[in-house]
């Protein structure tokens, strides 16, 4: 009877130990995934901080003023291209004739007997 009770207790201890090992492996894999995500987010934060510093610089303001804001500096002339009002004509496509193809028989005849060029 004591042997059976000892086996049951030992088996329950082994099952609990196995469950704890699986839980620990699951936690380690989650920690590794979170570590990768943290690394990616840190890289993203660094890139965004660089973009923010550039957006606050005088160079970016000057670029925006010239390209999107359409501001000009003293001595410059603003040129805005305008599309023509009238309908635009589309050129007619050139008609290309289909190349003449010779049959294999005609090619062999010209090779053997010299009927062509």
What features would you describe in this structure?
The protein has 117 residues and is mostly helical. Helix content is 63%, strand content 0%. The protein is built from 3 helices and no strands. The model has no long low-confidence stretch (mean pLDDT 86).
Largest sheet: none
Distance between the termini: 110 Å
Q: Taking Cα atoms only, what radius of gyration do you get, to the nearest Å? A: 40 Å
Find the structural class using helix and strand composition. Answer: mainly alpha
* CA-based shape: flat
Overall mean confidence score, pLDDT? 86
Number of strands: 0
In terms of per-residue confidence, which ranges show pLDDT below 50 for 5 or more consecutive residues?
none
Count of alpha/pi helices:
3
Elements, N to C (H/E): HHH
| Helicity level | 55-70%
> How much β-strand is present in the residues?
under 5%
What is shown here, in short?
By secondary structure, the chain is mainly alpha-helical. The protein has helices at residues 2-55, 58-67, 104-113.
